[in-house]
Amino acid sequence: MAVKEELKKLGLHFILVDLGEIDIMETISEEQRVQLKTALLSSGLELMDDKRAILIEKIKNAVIEMVHHTDELIKINFSDYLSEKLKHDYTYLANLFSEVQGTTIAQFIISHKIERVKELIIYDELNITEIAWKMNYSSVAHLSNQFKKVTGLSPSHFKQLKDKRRSPIEEIGNTANVS
Q1: What angle do CA 57, 50, 10 make, to 5 degrees?
Q2: Count of alpha carbons within 13 angstroms of residue 65, beta-carbon side
Q3: The pLDDT of residue 114
Q4: Model confidence pTM above 0.85
Q5: Phi/psi at 178 (nearest 5 deg)?
Q6: Residue 170: CB partners within 8 Å, gap ≥ 6?
Q7: Mean pLDDT over residues 169-174, rounded?
Q8: Measured CA distances, 27 to 5, 30, 39, 97, 176 (Å)
């Protein structure tokens, strides 16, 4: 909404305003670009010009969408999913992501999957076997091992904790030390 308002104030017509993307009908001047950038910053948003940074954000958004906002089973291979969705070779995406983020896409995905598993444990609607199946782990043991590596706790121990710590989505995987 904030982005649409700022575009209207600048007299710019848009075809698409979607999460992280704007498609503007006209070519904008450098002055309009600066005005838009300033207006977005005042709303807590950022205008990204760097194509690499934009692609990194698209990778992050695709992972977050797939892990946190899809109730379908995650059966597709993430590398195939990202390549298809972002229209780039996975090796290129993986190298770019690692170079810029200091972590791999795989580690970023694991961090988000474990955070989603924590959420599902806290909701207490599914047992560990159902969570493993939903999150496309090959077994409960695989989920448990990965969960313990990331959190230091077994899923059952985490479930028993009174103060269940979760991380905000935007902080997950930014400086992950996942093995």
Answers
A1: 95
A2: 12
A3: 96
A4: no
A5: -90, 135
A6: none
A7: 75
A8: 18, 10, 18, 30, 39
For residues 96 and 142, what is the distance between their CA atoms, to the nearest angstrom?
Answer: 28
- The predicted-structure confidence for 136-166, as pLDDT tens digits, reads as follows 899 999 999 999 999 999 999 998 886 666 6
Residue 43 tokens, joined? 């709303």
Distance (Å, rounded) from C-alpha 77 to C-alpha 148? 23
Q: Please tell us whether the domain made up of 54-171 is placed in CATH 3.40.50.1370.
A: no
* H or E stretch covering 157: helix 155-160
CB atoms near residue 81 (< 10 Å): 17
Residue spans of the domains in the chain: they are 2-47, 54-171
Q: Beta partners for 18?
A: 21
